[in-house]
Amino acid sequence: MLQLHFTPEWFNGWDLVLDTIGLVIALLIAAFSWRIYNMHKENRYAYFALAFVCIAVGFGFKLLTNGIYYFEPIRDVAAGVLKPVAGPRLAFADLFYRAGFFLEMAPWLGGLLLLFFISQKPRERLHKYYELTQIGLFVYLILLISVVSNFTFFVFYLTSTVLLSLIVLNYYKNYLNNGNSNTLRVMWAFMLMLCAHVLFVFVFLWSGLYFFGEVLLLAGFLVLLLTYTRVVAFRGVKRVA
Amino acid sequence: MAARRSRLELVFDILLSIQNKGGKIKPTHLMYKSNLSHKLLNSYLEELIEKGLVNVEEEFVKKRDGPLKTVVITEKGLGFLAEFRRMREFTDAFGL
């Protein structure tokens, strides 16, 4: 059978707990951004919300696929449900897991790409037609990468590493411009996620790297949560009219 | 040159000017503080009154022909200010 992740056996299931936390944080940030979009009606907030929804969807598919993979009772239920299509031995297990991995990767990469666009462009970004066509091209490339990654899984992590590096760089530039401590936190959050994805690239060498990667990924999302809570609790006056 | 203020930023500036004056301000002062023309300020004030973000109070003062008008920020207006600050902080933090 296709090996989805090189998870240490003792860590099976625990990674799903960590990913669930990441999923909830991603949805919280998306919801806040969507609220701002409703107030401001500026596309950038909608795109930002969409980026985090994509990441949450990626997590969701990972939870679903790995949940079935890890837990025998759930696997039996899934096999029972799929029996009429797949035959008594769930003959298309490989196909199922490949589809699950694809549905995890494509939204993750899409979300990161959107974050890259949002963090890079000037204020009037994503308004013009040619920018949307550019996004269309990148969506195609992401789908292509996701398909290829199904055969060589580290292509996915390699691509996400590149995207995360660019996002970190953009947030660093953003921090240099505004000197806001929350921007610095966001940069560190993405830096931790970047480190996690670098470890995931090399997980085939030693499965323990998956554990450290998952912990770093969780740490990244927790730093995002910290920033989110500070923003929600924010009451100071920054610019006086 | 400073960027043109969005509609929401103008509303924020009007409400902030009122809050900075202790929640009450004369329309003329508000015009100067928020850097708006008389016509524009009136159109914004009408909208803010309609949405319940501010009230206009009238006081009768001796030695004055008409009533003295003051613009007062409401609880809803204060809520909007807090929400807008959070939104701005979010925008700054996430580089939007």
Automatic annotation (TrEMBL), chain B:
Superkingdom of origin: Bacteria
Residues covered by the ArnR1-like winged helix-turn-helix domain: 4-90
InterPro entries tied to this protein: ArnR1-like_HTH (IPR038723), WH-like_DNA-bd_sf (IPR036388), WH_DNA-bd_sf (IPR036390)
Official protein name in the record: ArnR1-like winged helix-turn-helix domain-containing protein
Gene source species: Candidatus Buchananbacteria bacterium RIFCSPLOWO2_01_FULL_40_23b
